Amino acid sequence: MAYLSIRERYSYLFSDLARLSHEAGIIDDHNVYQEANAETRAILYKVIAENLHDGSCLEGREHFAEFLQQLKAGKHGLILAEHYSNMDLPLLCYLLEQDKGDFGKEIAARIVAISGKKLNEENPMIKAWAEGFSRIVIYPSRSLASVTDPEELARGRKINLAATRALSTVRRNGQSVLVFPSGTRYRPGKPETKHGVRETDSYLRIFDIMILVSINGSILRICEDEPDNMLADLVVPDTVVMAASPVMYCKQFREEVNASLASSSSEAIDLKQKHVDRIMELLALQHEQYEKIRLSKAPPLLI
User: Fold this and answer.
1) CATH number of 6-297
2) In the structure, what pLDDT confidence band is assigned to residue 302 with cuts at 50, 70 and 90?
């Protein structure tokens, strides 16, 4: 079956998105925090509703509810999620808001995602879609490491310093921060895109609690012929199951990983990377568990 790209399927929405979009196309140290745009969010939710199959749902609802309860008690909360497409955050918020429980809408309203600058700077339409959700925009470490131009390097450092300040404000305000520990979307056949980014450990150090969110199914898939063109991503109707792990305490998690490595004979263990590696292992196990549930709700797609 042939699927249409975002550009082909939803170009008729582009004029409305352009009219309603208001965030800057270039990121600097003055605009790293971007509040959700309710108008572009509503358009994106219509796209989701058109492509989400029956059986799509949240699993681990009691864990989401416990997470919210601890946020209300003053804990600083972190969401670490798998990353398959630019629809991951919109889908999570949509499913939370559609849930009949009394926790979903409030969690969705509290989520602030850590987002790479590419979503703002790549294309005006991608920016308009992305700005439907509250974000702190960063200059990704992988990108910054390859920068040789002094001015661009200085820009990246200023952006990330401002993002650190914004993160502190968000924590104090009782919002929850969502991070994709892989730092990039997973691409089939490229296992390195599921490798956890070492810098994720810096979030574990400053947050109290965390949940892991696995993502099974996606209504948007990277086009193999144009993997770097986000507007070429394919719209694929699907059944999506998103699941939360039990709430974990970040400090305890890091200490337990350290303890498991205490008997290692290696003298060059990168503990920060090991913490993130364990996160990715747990996400993979959770994904496998809930894929069985997803397939029981709908047949797999022939793609």
Assistant:
1) 3.40.1130.10
2) very low
